[in-house]
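---------- Forwarded message ----------

FYI, see the Tryptophan transporter record below. Original note from H. follows.
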Amino acid sequence: MSEKVRVYGDRSSQRKESTRVMVISAILLAVGAITHTVFSGPDFLLACMFVAIAISNNKKEVFAITVAAGLLTGFTQVNPVGTVASLFDKLISGFFFLFIINMFGEKYKNNLIYFAAAVVLSTILSGYIYFASYYFIGKLVGLPPTMKIMQRGILIPVLTLVMPTACANGFIATIINRAYKLTRF
């Protein structure tokens, strides 16, 4: 039996499991998009994306989840450079998170500390990629740094914005993941 499918049985039950995971992922992304739009602080869409990735654990589904999360985040950006940067950071950090949780297996997903650490590391990577790509794409197309915080490079935003967001995302994603595991039907 393939590693991609966690449900034993015929093709019908496999399709039902895949559909269930994608529906839950869509709900998580919708909740994340709403909170991302309402609250300008931490990127809760990223936390919801990581929980959806942990639930699916399938490369095709993870690709769909990361692209959807990148586009949803990009739609809230004022500048088109931010849209492209959001897509880059979600794709790379999503597959990095998938790599981490697959490296340690099921023990990793079920342990709250390991899960929170994976979310924190992936959020730091996501923030760094976002600000680096925003900065370099902006330079490439000749835009001045639109965010005042970016005028001196990317180190200041990474330290002042990404680190607190990483801690918040680790906490929020762990709560969401734990709630999912307790209420799984």
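H. also flagged this: The mean pLDDT is 82.
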